[in-house]
Amino acid sequence: MNEPSGTPRRATITVTGLPVNEVILATDDLVTRLLDAVDTAGERLRDGDVVCVASKVVALTEGRTVAVDDDPDAVRRLARGEAAEVVADAPAVLVVRTRHGHVVANAGIDRSNVASGTAILLPADPDASADAIRREIAGRTGIDVAVIVTDTFGRPWRNGQTDVAIGLSGMAALRDERGQTDLAGRALHVTVAAIGDAVAAACDLARSKASATPFVLVRGVDRGKASTAHALVRPVDEDLFRFGGPTAAEQAIERRRTIRSFIDGTAVDERVLAAAVRAAGTAPAPHHTRPWRFIGLHDDTRTHLLDAMAQQWRQDLQADGVPATTVEARVRRSDAVLRRAPTLVAAFVSLEQAHDHLDARRAQAERDLFLLSAGAALQSAQVVLHAHGVGCAWMSSTTFCGPTVRAVLDLPDHWQPVGMLAAGQPARRPAPRPAADVGPLLESR
Fold first, then answer.
1. pLDDT digits (tens, 9 = 90+) for 316-339
2. CA–CA–CA angle 58, 127, 51 (5° rounding)
3. Is this prediction's pTM over 0.85?
4. What SS3 class is residue 348?
5. 218, 354, 199, 228: which is closest to 285 by C-alpha?
6. pLDDT at 242 exceeding the cut of 80
7. What span, in angstroms and rounded, lies between the C-alpha atoms of 112 and 87?
8. Where are the beta strands (DSSP E) in 124-280?
9. How many Å apart are CA 421 and CA 347, to the nearest integer?
10. Who contacts 114 (Cβ-Cβ below 8 Å, separation ≥6)?
11. How far apart are alpha carbons 273 and 47 in whole angstroms?
């Protein structure tokens, strides 16, 4: 496996699909069906061969099928149950880290080529499955083959899917060339070839989804020192794709835009709203508190509050001497967002845990600290909403009529309104905005 640099190597690798005559059933003996497919294809297994087996037939014969209804969200719910961690919750797909460590769309749950109302999960332990199949083949035939359990994964930043090794026995998962030299004599520091995945990917050259070919024979591969497919799983603390690194965090914040026009009637999914509030709950705050509060406004409560706020604003503007036509125009502009937003959430900061200070200067500073923390919480919530494709506008009007808001919602005096989040599916996407000029914002003294 680790040959000296420059060692000539010639390899002829063949990839042969082994179709089955009849669909494999949950009650079938998988190794019997595999050996029958080898015979039908006119092949004979040899020592050193690699047999690739689709994870679907492994899971099927291991009883890993579940009932699922026709609800479009059913697979997502199943995927959450199979996930050790949700990596990306997007409208089109739920990407999770499975208990095996694999990062895969919808936890690898498959509904293709199965009976209606049924889905197939990944094998419970693919490495153990590969090892059991390999030992069974050896016991029946006396032939030493390696076995790869394959599944179809998408890839970051690449179109199309490819098969990868999720279970492996009898061969190396990786070929480590570090410490060797390239053709120019330079030392190799990072070259580790994913041989297990390369062999698994080759299988798709000999089959398709509709070809009834769950088995593929690969011949001519240098199997190297045996390991498991777990060696292919990158440790979480080394996974830069998981969060995209610091650049992704910067872009997530910079791409947030204020959206005031929404598709009518498309409310924000409750899970997305909960994720936004959860993110808000991580904001820095004084005295180790979590002083932020959010109230979703619905039906009569929403209408009553907006009516009361509009009336208070009219009175305030009239008291300022603003002409009546201007008053109504300003109220209409605000109502155009607040009343039409599919989802409306009132935000507050509780001052209950603020420290009491005897002098006005420190008392004001204490209050300001809590209000500053509310700004951080609101920013976090809006960034998460934007990441989920939700448009959002922070509307500050509640801050000008605290007593009215508290009276309508029956809230204690220490709840200070800090605006509302008007949210929904954007009616249109705004054009990208240029990056902020740091010059006027950052000084050095």
1. 999 999 999 999 999 999 888 999
2. 60
3. no
4. strand
5. 354
6. no
7. 24
8. 146-155, 158-169, 175-176, 192-193, 215-219
9. 7
10. 60, 65, 120
11. 57
